[in-house]
Structures are given as C-alpha cells and as structure tokens.
Amino acid sequence: MPEYNLSIVVISKNEEKHIAKCLDSVFAEIKAMPATEVILVDSRSTDKTIDIASKYNVKIAVIDKKHKMTPGLGRLIGTQLSKGYFIFFLDGDKILCNGWLKEALSVIDKSDSIAGVIGNIEEGFFEDNGEFRILRVFDYFANKNQNSMLIAKTLDGTSLFKKEALEKTGGYDPFMRSCEDTDLFLRIEKNKFVVAWTSKIMCRHITDNYDMSEIATKIFKGYYSGLGVFVRKALKNRVFLKALKAKDVPFRYIGWLFLGMQLFFISFIIKNYLLFFLWLIMTARALIIIFIRQKDKKYFFSIIAHIFGTSLGLIVGFLFVTNPDTGKRAHYDYKIVKD
C-alpha cells in the first residue's frame, strides 16, 4: 500500500513572487487530508524561492546542474519521489482554487479507465488593489462519453493523476522543451485511458505572458521550438491529427510566416523582390487590423511577438531541433535540501 493517499508536487524556477501564494493555497486545501505529502521540485532557482518554501512543511529537491532544465524533468523527478497513490502537479506560479482537489479526488476513483482529472484555469494577474484580473480562461472540456463521464480534450502541467496510470503510460518526457503535458495526454489515450474534467475552476495562473521579457525568456529556453519537436514526435508516433486537435496549433499564422520565408528565398534566387514586398504589405495591413481591434493596446507588441515566436518556433523545432531517444530513461540526480 502507498505510504500516502496523495502527493502534491510543486514545480518551481525563480518563483519568489508567487511561491508563498501557491503553497498557502495548497495547505489551505489539504487541512482535511492528513495522508498527504507536499514535494517541491526546484529547477535551480537563483532567487529566494527555496528560502520561502523552506518555511512550509514541504520536502524540497533541487535538480542537479548536469541536467538540462525542461518542464517535464521536474515532474518526472516529482513522480519518482512521491509516495502517494494519487499525484497532483502544480506549478509555482499557480494558485489552487478552494475545493477543486477534493472534488477531483471524488471523480478520479469512479472508473478504472480514468488516469487523471483536470479543470479549467483562469489566467491573469493581481492588480495593485489585490484583485485578480482575468485575461483569459483555458477550457479543457471535450464531451461526455458513453458512461456520462465528463472528458477533457487535453492536459495542462497542473493535473491530478493516479500514479499507477502515470507509470503505465511512461509519465512525463524529460526531454520535451514544451508541450510535455499534451504529449503525455496522447500516450494516455493510446493506452485506452481517459482524462476526466470538472466544471469547477482548478487554479489561477499568475502570468507575465504579455510581458516582452517573458517572451524573450521563452525564446531563450526553447519553449517555442518545443512545439515543433512535439509535432514531429506526434508524426513519428502516428498521432499527428490528434496532436493538432489537442494542442490547437495556430497553422494560419505558421503557414503565413512559412509562405513569407519561401517568397523571400524565391525572390533572392530570381533577384526580384516584388512578391516578397507584396507579402510584407499584406502582413503590415493585418497587423494594423489586429492593433485596431486590440482593446488593451499595451499588450499589442507582446501578442505579436508571441504569435511570431510560436510560428517560427514550430518551423525551426520541426525541421532542425533534435530530441534524444525518450525511450532510454536515464538516472536523474537531485539534491534533497529539506526532508
């Protein structure tokens, strides 16, 4: 029998601004869940994240410097460290909503076919007055199946799982630069499991997605090129169409950017740039329309940078970025700094 009923694995990397809110929400939720352990897996934070987290009743593991940091690596190590029958993953910049975990635990045991549970996510930031401003809501609901279970259309990094199901499906891929959650979802489906969905909001994501520095960080870490690696892996595993549906890849932007690259290459060969200039004019026109329709103008350049990064990243990742053989699971080193 597992030592705990539930393991909560929090993933962090320089989250000193958010980690206290995150852990406060976790411990508020598990007051009535005595057989629960909380583990923080840290990707070598250089700020005060670990100092702040050390004030809580958590086990803290820091990933060894010889490993390349990826979103999946921390979750894989967290899975290996956990002693619970269920595992709930939560990012350090997210706040667990009151009551969701209790409801999810009541859902996950309803059927042997359920590997995990997810709920919707509110993304936004806190105003100066302490109010949470919602920028968007991620809705993961797909449909009802024949047993009237509410089924999710994909996963997020924040989700509840049966540990046994994670192990059967291979768990998180430690080499994926991004899309590690959708990659896991496709393997869950391939193994004839489902991910259930609850209508209750699961968590709030405190985001800087519309900040140019955050866009630059994603580019530097290879987040955008990870989308291309994910699509190529899905093609290799013969789940290409399912991957596109689960990830909602914005092919209209990617196709347009790819067309521009091709026109530039052709123009360079034939020494006539008319077609490429026409593409630039049409692109400028589209940007002007987007700017006019954008309600909050201060986010315009960040949104365009995000679209450009996603489009170019998919092309570069698909064509040029190689991934190690994920079937060969190596030993991953970490240091326990608080037990």
Plain-language structure description:
The chain has helices at 19-29, 49-53, 71-81, 100-108, 163-169, 180-190, 212-220, 223-236, 240-247, 251-270, 274-293, 300-319; strands at 4-12, 36-42, 59-63, 84-91, 94-96, 114-126, 132-138, 141-144, 150-152, 159-162, 194-206, 334-338. The protein is of the alpha/beta class and 339 residues long. The protein has two domains: 4-207, Spore Coat Polysaccharide Biosynthesis Protein SpsA, Chain A (Alpha-Beta Complex); 236-319, no CATH class. Strands 1, 2, 3, 4, 5, 6, 7, 10, 11 and 12 form a ten-stranded mixed β-sheet that branches. The two termini are 22 Å apart.
Please summarize what this structure is.
The chain has helices at residues 19-29, 49-53, 71-81, 100-108, 163-169, 180-190, 212-220, 223-236, 240-247, 251-270, 274-293, 300-319; strands spanning 4-12, 36-42, 59-63, 84-91, 94-96, 114-126, 132-138, 141-144, 150-152, 159-162, 194-206, 334-338.
Which helices and strands appear, and what pairs or packs with what?
Elements: E1 4-12, H1 19-29, E2 36-42, H2 49-53, E3 59-63, H3 71-81, E4 84-91, E5 94-96, H4 100-108, E6 114-126, E7 132-138, E8 141-144, E9 150-152, E10 159-162, H5 163-169, H6 180-190, E11 194-206, H7 212-220, H8 223-236, H9 240-247, H10 251-270, H11 274-293, H12 300-319, E12 334-338
Number of domains: 2
Which series of helices and strands comes N to C?
A: EHEHEHEEHEEEEEHHEHHHHHHE
Task: Give average pLDDT, whole number.
Answer: 88
Strand segment count: 12
CATH architecture of the largest domain: Alpha-Beta Complex
Largest sheet: 10 strands, mixed
Give the helix proportion (percent range): 40-55%
Which structural class best describes the helix and strand composition?
Answer: alpha/beta
